[in-house]
TrEMBL record:
Family annotation (InterPro entries): Epimerase_deHydtase (IPR001509), NAD(P)-bd_dom_sf (IPR036291), NAD(P)-dependent_oxidoreduct (IPR051783)
TM annotation in the entry: 6-30
Classification via Pfam families: Epimerase (PF01370)
UniProt KW keywords: Membrane, Transmembrane, Transmembrane helix
Name the record gives this protein: NAD(P)-dependent oxidoreductase
Species per Swiss-Prot/TrEMBL record: Paraburkholderia agricolaris
Amino acid sequence: MAHRVFVAGASGAIGTALVPLLIAAGYTVFGSTRRVERAKKLEDAGATPVVVDVFDALALRNALLHIAPQTVIHQLTDLPPGLDPARMAQAVTANARIRDEGTRNLVAAAVSAGSSRMIAQSIAWAYRPGATPYDESCPLDIDAQGTRGTSVRGVAALEQHVLEARSLTGTVLRYGQIYGPGTGADSAAGSSPLHVEAAAYAALLALQRGKAGVYNIAEDAAEVSSAKAKRELAWSPDWRSVQH
């Protein structure tokens, strides 16, 4: 039987790029969305849609028990269309909730379903200020104030849930600032930019190579070093789907 993968947040920007890669690599993909109207998009991409809200712990657990995925890939975010500046402050709080409560529910459901792997999206701009480039051993800025503090503490909770989960091999991908199709940003920006297709490729490689731990995923000359991902995952920031 083909390896079953449950992609949480499959209709988001990275999920949209990732699902076709997984299917092309021979995985059986189940993709979650909380919006019924997005199910057809997932079907058209070759995935089995699962309409479920990560905050409904019982429904999520039942869905994963039915699917019994070997691997769960966490690409959930709660961002406004086009990264609308007027709504970003609210999005910071919503994202922090997904990263903490949502991840906790997803991990519990994966454990109940007998999954063995979890790969989760984190962020690469959460490091405590210091000498750059930051590598994965550098501390996160958990004492930051304001919206930054909210984001970083949400990220720290997500990473703890994934890396310390009972019976799961956890991989955390600290993505840089995403740009490209579906992201609301057409070109590279920020301290550690990353194309959405290269981000998706990193998740595929993490699955194929079975590596646990934390990986920075960003373009060359970023504020963070992605040397570990290049070395252990054979990842490249230049990868685009047109190459395959």
